[in-house]
Design brief:
It comes from Aduncisulcus paluster. 38% of the residues lie in helices and 14% in strands. By secondary structure, the chain is an alpha/beta fold. The protein contains five helices and five strands. It has a single domain (17-154), classed as P-loop containing nucleotide triphosphate hydrolases (Rossmann fold). The protein has a three-stranded parallel sheet, with helices on both faces. Strands 4-5 form a two-stranded antiparallel sheet. The structure holds guanosine-5'-triphosphate (GTP) and magnesium ion (MG). Magnesium ion binds next to loops.
Length: 161
């Protein structure tokens, strides 16, 4: 990004209850999130409220500082749709989240989704960290070899919005 290498690590969290504790441990240091629902499964869309509340409860960073992208997947199954595009758009706009409909089956919008997410990471995470680093003689931006590439050790611990 802007001539610098940035590694983004994605953790795929299973929706199942038995993974809940592990998933919560992922949230803590996450700098962004991709929430995926199924456009043919209304419950998976309504469950987004639950996933947002989980992130608010367990993320170290405020969700308003994090790039969050919602993907309505299975767009190839339009004939079985139970979540209108406009409804999801309104919900995402209300929360300040990016939104796209995708199909993992056909590949529609999948690379655009990654591109969009990377742009949001650049704007909302990498750039602010670089600006902070420039402003501070006592640099607190460190590079990690395992896991996340950029680590802010700022004192902020606020969760939620
Ligand atoms: N038609 C269609 N089927 C899809 C698409 N994406 C995934 N599937 C199918 O949907 C089912 C569930 O996909 P998964 O990737 O296991 O879903 P998941 O959300 O990761 O599920 P958990 O990890 O259990 O929470 C599988 O049978 C996939 O083949 C898509 O874009 N279109
Ligand atoms: Mg899965």
């Amino acid at each position: 990004m802007d001539g610098k290498d940035v590694t983004i690590t994605f953790y795929d969290s299973g929706g199942q209850e038995k993974f809940r504790a592990i998933v919560r441990s992922y949230y803590r240091k996450s700098r962004g999130a991709v929430l995926v629902y199924d456009i043919t499964d209304r419950k998976s869309f309504l469950d987004l409220d639950y996933w947002v509340s989980e992130m608010q409860a367990h993320c170290e960073f405020s969700l308003s500082e994090m790039p969050i992208m919602v993907l309505g997947n299975k767009s190839d199954h339009g004939h079985l749709r139970t979540v209108p595009t406009a409804e999801a758009e309104v919900w995402c706009e209300r929360h300040g989240f990016a939104f796209l409909e995708t199909s993992a089956l056909t590949g529609k919008n999948t690379s655009d989704a990654f591109k969009l997410f990377i742009q949001l990471i650049q704007k909302m995470v990498v750039k602010p960290l670089e600006d902070q680093e420039e402003d501070s003689s006592d640099s607190f931006l460190t590079r990690e070899t395992e896991g996340l590439p950029l680590k802010s050790v700022s004192k902020k611990g606020a969760c939620g919005r």
